[in-house]
Amino acid sequence: MAVLSNPFPSAQPGAPTDEGRDDSGQGRRPFWPDYSPHFLKVRHRVRSALRSIDAGAIRTSGVVIGLSGGADSLALLAGACAETFGPKGALVGGPVHAVVVDHRLQDGSADVARRAADTARSLGATAEVVVVDIDKDSPHGPEYAARIERHRALREVARRRHAPLLLAHTLDDQAETVLLRLARGGGPQALSAIRDDLTWSDGTRILRPLLSVRRADTKGCCTELGLSPWEDPHNDDPAFARVRVRRSILPLLERELGPGVAENLAKTAALAALDNDSLDSSAEAELTSLLEEGRPSASERGGGELPVSGLATLDDAVATRVIGRWVRRSGGEPNTKQIDAIMALVRNYHGQGAVQVPVSGKVQGGARPAGARLVVARKDGTLQLSEE
Q: Are 209 and 76 a contacting pair, CB within 8 Å?
């Protein structure tokens, strides 16, 4: 990624300003050109997202930006930095902090990370590079392991700074995700795809302001601002399914079905998210009720027992979610086939045996042994969990 030595002199912290204000970011001369329609679209989406957060809190803690150095995250960073300029910015006076995660999966990654951080500082943000270790032997592959470690690192910084985390997924990312999950047989939960606003279990709020913005706009934004994004070679490697969707399948659908396919796929995700949230809310309420009705479980994880009679009264859409939530509370990681097998213990029981479910490797206070399983069995009119 080529970085100009000082592409925006008036945006440098400490530089003289026309308005004579301090160097905290407020009142500096804008770093964007007069005509910048792509950047304006990005900035409007960032402003809308930031205004969903308490103004006092965000101007104290600011925001954390996940920065790769690519066009999407550079555009997001520029939009957030612009919002520190008054008087209309949603982040006036609030700090923008960029976090560049170096996975060390490619030669020269340290240099790429350093230059991305330098670009962030040139726009008026603070920045840090976090180096992570990746399990290259992960059964899910190094890319999956890298994503997990990247999210962990970003979450830790956001939690430390008591700030929301902004990520740069675009409408194109959303469309690609929906297609991939359709191909894998995902239901409403999977088709909800990437959420624009969610809160992780540790309280970290995640915002994706650019989820309605096309990738062409983020690239156009960088061109307008004179930024040269880093081009990740993995984004052109057809070994990855997402790259094949991006380079071949989506363009083919646009040619054969007409324009607007990506936008319609993103709309599908938004509609699925509404349905899924409603079903999840119902499932959580039903699970609480059923656990109160059931007896304490023999499992040391204390998952509780689910009365079969209560589950049998629920619609399948809710019952499957109740079972999934119940098993996950005990550390299980059930797939759809295993949930269907557990549902058969309720709907079509004829004396069949227990259902085994893999569990996560870590538990509070230690780690589970390799190959550990949860077992779901029907006994005395209830579904019961045990660990083997």
A: yes
